[in-house]
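Before the break, one more example. Copy the sequence into your notebook; we will annotate it together after we see the structure.
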Amino acid sequence: MDALAGIRVIDLSHVIAGPTASHYLALQGAEVIKVENPWTGDILRHGVRDRLDTAITVGFAAINGGKKSLAIDLKDARCRDALMALVRTADVFIENFRPGAVARLGFDHAAVAAVKPDIIYASISGFGQEGAWGRRAAYDHVVQSAVGMAMMQGIEGGDPMKVGFPVIDTATGMIGAQAILSALIRRLRKGEGSYLDISMAQAALQLMWPEAARAAVSGGDAPRVGNRGFSGSPGGSTFRCADGWVSTAANTARQFRVLCTVVGVPEVLQDLTLLDLDALARGAGFVVPVDRERLQAILEQAILRIPGAELEARLAAEDVPCARLATLAEFIKRAASEKLLTLPLRRTAYAEGALIDFGAGYRADRSDGAPLAPAPRLGQHTAALLAEAGMSAAQVEALASAGKARL
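Here is what the structure looks like once it is written out:
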């Protein structure tokens, strides 16, 4: 949408959470200056799988497209002075060092706000800037364990299970971008800068918000439901079918009647030993089982005879949610080839392949928008940015020769 065209972001963050926040700002047209270590750069640059170019992996490219790379040693006073000169021209400053570390480099909120009073300053961390856990290092699966997310997966009495991708990292970046956008709007209206304390733990609670609220009120945890739906309805579950697995959400009385008819067990609907027939007749709320285990077994045996595609099609025709279980790669391939849903698919060319991206997660004005420019090579924009900060070509070259900057 280019809503942030003209907004400059200084981004000292690395790995996933912080770069995801600035990625969403870049998608809206902001200029993002990614400040990196001149020797190694962001750790996501490196890996043997899925490399698109020298020191650019698919994972790095996915959340760093369109950014500029300023590769300088912030322990060097000349580099710090140059960065502070760029800060004076910036609107947003992002960092995800462990609390306290950025102050030692001279770029804490107080120092940055002293030269740019209306800056939007975002600190991203594992557990926030305050409290006993504030200085703890954090990674996604560790935070999942700490906040109770891993104990929500699986079934009662079973082992804990983390979510199968870095969900908290990504959510932290998305919440960070939303917070920065809100702060920019406030600055537009009131002329004030903001200091934003954004943490992975906070993001995790936002992802679990209804259950987190219930736990806070009741002091207890909800039961672990495994692959069942959250409604409690016997028709909201995951079943093995003739050729794989399907998930159904036949939660209401009407939906459950359709499910039982389609899979060939309509007699269930008259069996008071299996269902609360009064609740079923009223049709309000979700279906209430009387003997959940026996009813589950009946549905399992019935669905086991039916191919997944057939069941998916028949239930979908009756407006009952149902989907065959797919891998991520299977879903993306099918969604693209069969045009199943609104899903922008954009290509960005690199030396050793192409990145496929999905835009900002929505379509604006019925347009997929243009893909971002390729992610920068390490130090690709260092010379130009240091020149903008007031350094001569000779000074820039001296930094590079001393190993304090990468050009």
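The chain has two domains: 8-210+346-406, 236-325. The domain at 8-210+346-406 is CATH 3.40.50.10540 (Rossmann fold). Try to locate both features in your own notes.
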